[in-house]
Design brief:
With 319 residues, this protein is of the alpha/beta class. It has one domain: Aldolase class I (TIM Barrel, Alpha-Beta Barrel), CATH 3.20.20.70. Helix content is 34%, strand content 16%. It contains eleven helices and nine strands. A nine-stranded mixed β-sheet has the order 6-5-4-3-2-1-7-8-9. Helix 2 links the parallel strand 2 and strand 3. The longest helix is centred in the first third of the chain and has 14 residues.
Length: 319
């Protein structure tokens, strides 16, 4: 595997407990990626891979601000071309605080910043904080300042959460050069538990192929990116693990990657989520269950199957 992009899940701790979170982050979570581990991962990836970008998120990465800053500093020293962070903006309680933190990050090496803004985040994070962060971010010289907003179902769907997200975006006001990305919630993690009922399920079992998340890129046989969490799990999609750096080196994991040798990815690559569904039925999965799309099907089957493949379906909190 040749890695072009890496995401560091710095922590699963977060001041919010969003209903759509794939990793079920929240204030009760603990643990974070140690700097020595992050530096080791970066060294491996810059030594032997065509690494083009690093994104740090979580959870909420600003909870461990000094580690976030040092990771950006090291990525800059190693000349990673694009250095990014994703945040909910909780920390920008005043413009003065926001300016201090963002200038520190800019000087350390941060180039781009994304603020998560929608009904799910604003249930916990005051919009005024986010406004402070966005406004200041546009003045300190970042290459890109982005707002990410997630919708249930299609972007035009009329439901409680989408209508609230539209109002949140309206209340942000004029954002100038800020990019706004509107995406769709993936029905995994908390979204599968709390939000699936807001979107109509398909009458038939979805039979499409497996598509890796856009931030990973490539395909199952040749993925272009990875995520690494603070527990050492190396994942291609939330909850699908190809190895753990606590028991095996990152180099060994990447050099030894073969999706056809993985009990979950081998089925997904050949048959798609419907293949997992067939295997799960043989083990007692509810064959009459309803699903919104292929990703929802895949997640529910994996949640059922985790008892059989705990090391391949990790981290545990995804399920």
């Amino acid at each position: 595997m040749q890695v072009k992009r890496v995401d560091f899940l710095l922590t699963f701790k977060c001041p919010s407990k969003c209903k759509h979170c794939s990793y079920k982050g929240g204030p009760e979570r603990s643990g974070y990626m140690k700097l020595v581990d992050a530096e080791r991962y970066l060294q491996v990836l810059t030594d032997a891979h065509p690494l083009q970008s690093i994104t740090v998120h979580g959870g909420e990465p600003f909870v461990y601000f000094e580690n976030l800053k040092q990771i950006m500093k090291r990525a800059k020293e190693l000349e990673v071309p694009r250095r990014w962070v994703i945040t909910n903006g909780y920390w920008a309680k005043t413009k003065e605080v926001a300016k201090e933190k963002l200038i520190e990050l800019k000087e350390a090496g941060l180039m781009c910043i994304t603020f998560s803004v929608d009904s799910f985040h604003q249930e916990y994070i005051p919009l005024e904080n986010v406004k402070n962060g966005i406004e200041v971010a546009t003045t300190v010289g970042f290459e890109r300042v982005v707002v990410d907003s997630l919708f249930l179902g299609s972007l035009n769907s009329d439901n409680f959460y989408n209508n609230l997200t539209r109002r949140v975006l309206e209340n942000l006001g004029e954002l100038g050069e800020v990019e706004i990305n509107r995406g769709q919630v993936d029905f995994e993690g908390r979204a599968a538990e709390f939000l699936a009922s807001y979107v109509e399920s398909k009458a038939e079992i979805p039979r499409g192929r497996c598509q890796l998340p856009f931030w990973i890129g490539g395909d199952l046989k040749n993925p272009e990116g990875i995520e690494i969490d603070f527990e050492g799990n190396v994942t291609l999609c939330p909850g699908i693990c190809i190895g753990n750096t606590k028991t095996q080196s990152l180099t060994q994991i990447l050099e030894g990657y073969d999706c056809l040798e993985h009990p979950i990815l081998s089925i997904l690559s050949e048959e798609g989520p419907i293949g997992l569904f067939k295997v799960a039925i043989e083990k007692g999965f509810n064959q009459n269950a309803k699903f919104i799309d292929e990703c929802h099907l895949c997640y529910e089957v994996r949640k059922f199957a985790r008892r059989y493949y705990p090391q391949h379906l990790a981290p545990e909190n995804c399920y």
